[in-house]
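Quick one - first record:
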Amino acid sequence: MAPVAVVGGGLAGIAAAVALAEAGLPVTLYEARPRLGGATHSFDRDGLVVDNGQHVFLRCCTAYRGLLDRIGATARVHLQDRFDVHVITPSGRRGRLRRAALPGPLHLMPALAAYTLLPPADRARAVLGSLALSRLDPADPALDRVGLGSWLAAHGQRDPARRALWELFAVAALNIGVEDAALGPAVMVFKTALLGRADAADIGVPAVPLGELHGATAETAIRRRGGEVRLSAKVSAVEFGSPGLPSLVVDGVRVPASAVVVATPHEQAARLVPAEAAPGRDRWSGLSASPIVNVHAVYDRRVMDPPFVAVVGSPIQWIFDKTRVAGLDTGQYLAISVSAAERWIDMPTAKIREEFVPALNRLLPGTRHARLTDFFVTREKRATFRQRPGSGALRPPAATRWPGLYLAGAWTDTGWPDTMEGAVRSGLQAARLARRHLRQGTAS
């Protein structure tokens, strides 16, 4: 049997390749870059190992956590014992959202009732809004046509609550502003993570660089199971031969396959997948893209105590302590994650520094007496698809019209927003369909 070909070495492709190899099928993973990991990767900078951006997961991300377990990486992440987020502001006011020892969805109600960044009346409205949102079905296609901002306004969520609560999590999870976001994926995030099981929103962060967590570890796991990984291998076409079997054109050479999983970003998938296999492929461009910018600041001393904080009322959204992960022995390395970053994505680093260094000084008093030893910016122009109203209807299923050809990627119809969890789920679904196809072919 020719191997199953997986095109794309991001989390979707990794998940598909691991699952297929575990099932005892020959599999070859093709990645155009010289590394695995896709949008989650690391690079070296003056002795530091730098992640291109901060990626977090939640306890409810069961598929992603399962993948970590299968590739032997569970011990390389840190998962909170209890959801706990410190929220800071430039004025020095502070809030804290920490789940109580109550069953969901009651576990966050005490935190909302005591959330000092909201006036008491807005805290009460937030509780009522949360209860109203918990009654919605994220799978209802009608929610894909509704904006989150208009729904919040209709349910009494005033500007203070939108900025200090709803936006805090929706922007980070969906990578789009509250006013532009679709209600459906927002409901999925809030209902699953914050209003579901009491421990669902416990936050996990990598304890090692992403290049090690998702790249080297996954490559080893695939090879250990008998799979092949081909890096720096450019796939330029997916074709079907006369016997009805698919093939790839890899670096100009036609390579046969028993099945193909295309696990690339939607723009590249639209170029690879034949129109006869996916008549709606031209519509995928409507998913567009939304950028993320990460600002990296290294200080000569420690300036922040918590492992991460959320921020309200500042261009800064979330700050993470990356000191240990990056291998820094002295001082402190902070990574600032800015989602929905259209304002910043093309701005020169010098201009970003002019705004973000003073913003850090206002938020973290310790920075005012510390020396900034390095400052740089990483940019992901096409970090996620743009999860606005109507985008859900553009997401294709894993199966195409051609038996043996499947799609994977967080942009496909996974039931999840464009996240690491969605990517892994898509890869697992594509692998299931490929296994079923091959079993049916063997039986016939």
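second record:
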Amino acid sequence: MQQTIAVIGAGFSGTLLALHLLRRCPPTTSVVLIERNSGFGRGQAYATGNANHLLNVPAGRMSAFRDRPDDFVAWLQRQAGADGTAAPAPGAFISRGLFGNYVRHLLEVERQAPGRGERLLLLQGDVVGLRKHPGSLALLMADGREVPAGLAVLAVGNFPPELPPGADPGAVDRPWYRPDPWAPDTFSELDADAPVLLIGTGLSTVDGVVSLLDAGHRGPIHALSRRGLLPRSHARRADVILPSQVPPLPTALSALTRLVRDQARRRVTQGGSWHAVVDALRPFTQELWQAMAHDEKARFLRHLRPWWDVHRHRMAVPVAERIEAALASGQFRIHVGRIRQIRDEGDGAAVDFRRRADGQEETLTVARIVNCAGPGCDYDRIRDPLVRDLLATGHARPDPFRLGLDITGACAVRAADGAISRRIFAVGPVTKAAFWEMTAVPDIRRQCEALAEHLAAVVAVSPPLAVPAV
């Protein structure tokens, strides 16, 4: 008899958690890794086939294991040796698809590892519900199967953006609308001279511009957002501030903002860069977020979040250079304002928006609209069957800031009445409300290691449950 942990979602978060669970849990523990798609180990973020969609973190910081910090770079070097190409440096920005291959490689190695591989089951299917029984759980699959487990971890990743304001619900079926900037058909059957609108100006929009340029698109590329902020570029040269050099950090938002601005100005004056100041906050960001008062967090989300995002989550230098060139040529143009209405116009769409600068109305007529506004985070609005079931049964609830689900510091899911679950946990972007920074690989890696340690301790004292026959 074995205890079973079910991990729902086999993108980076779920796959990495499964690897750490197999290393830390006793031999009587099995892991069922469930994925609705066929591509285990990659997830949406790293499944792109475009080699110019680059990681926004250097290769040297992308290892899946904290105790093996050179693991990804070593894998890249082995790959380069096999095909005769030059090995990238640790400071290089590698394609996201190549990183997805690395994660898939780790999964395959684990499946073949003596003493661990036989405890890992990969199950393709869609989990649409979850039921609690005395001492166990049952995962309801879309095809009617039930998968029993002792513990379950939600590693569901990011959900598609919400429908743009001003668009009626039927817009999702219009030939000119695409809800996913990375889907294979997002830019298919598009005239090379046709105007395109990307809603949003974040990293998803950057990917969209790169995809269009790679496809030889000649027409205008518009981007529209409320503030018009593009992600900044990484520094052209290295500049590092050691954690020991970081001054005491206040948790009052105004004081913290002043400190960061003052430190950035001082760094630039000394010949360094503001990038180093922002990067120096990385080891302390989660602690700062958790120490902030509720009202301070609300102020940050309302006023400073867009500015933090563009300075914290930056473009790789080669990508930034392409974006800057497209802006300089006039092919890529950023509009700042609020969408008022989206309507059919000929074979495309007309987008009416109010400019932020002067309040005047403007209309863009385009052949295609791509929603790059970022993942949907308000779980009350997410239509995914598993999410709807979790909320309807009261097994989970949205967090007060609508960033994900309400999660404890130990990644346990909180029920509708606030009770802390002893069997349902979460990992990755769904936990953003509790940890704030939970999108980059270094953050998710640390979280997966901590959760695996916690669950290993849980199963060590839990009664066994039979491995599912599926």
